[in-house]
Design brief:
Helix 1 runs antiparallel to helix 2 and helix 3 crosses helix 4. The protein is mainly alpha-helical. The protein is built from 5 helices and 2 strands, in the order αααββαα. It starts with 6 loop residues before the first helix and ends with a helix.
């Protein structure tokens, strides 16, 4: 069973690949920072998918806030507090509670936002229900 449908969706996947190639070229050519790379790799494709799937904005946005911001904050807080990783002070904005960097919270939000928009756009619900 193929839950991905239509020629338009195939074209959308190809366009998203080109957006990622563009992001790679710009990131290497300009030696972009973490926040700029986040916007290039997650923000631009999300804007494209949002343009295609306007109906799901509210649902995806609320889920991204709850999972991307709330759970992302908790996860990053514990990881940074335990020194599981370190962002090397290379980010643009300050820290929340002296531990979690705001740039990372933007990344968590856009990461979840992009995943959910991708799912909403490419998975055909009618074919899923027919099984």
């Amino acid at each position: 069973m193929n839950i991905f449908t239509s020629r338009q969706k195939t074209q959308d996947i190809i366009f998203l690949c080109f957006i990622n190639i563009f992001a790679i070229v710009v990131s290497f050519a300009l030696k972009t920072n973490f926040l700029t790379s986040t916007i290039l790799f997650l923000g631009l494709p999300s804007l494209y998918l949002l343009y295609k799937e306007k109906n799901y904005f509210k649902k995806v946005f609320l889920a991204s806030i709850s999972f991307g911001i709330f759970f992302g904050f908790v996860f990053d807080f514990i990881a940074e507090l335990n020194k599981a990783w370190d962002w090397n002070e290379g980010l643009l904005f300050g820290k929340i509670l002296g531990v979690v960097q705001i740039d990372v919270m933007v990344w968590f939000f856009l990461w979840i936002f992009h995943i959910l928009l991708f799912y909403e756009h490419f998975i055909d619900r009618k074919k899923l229900k027919s099984n």
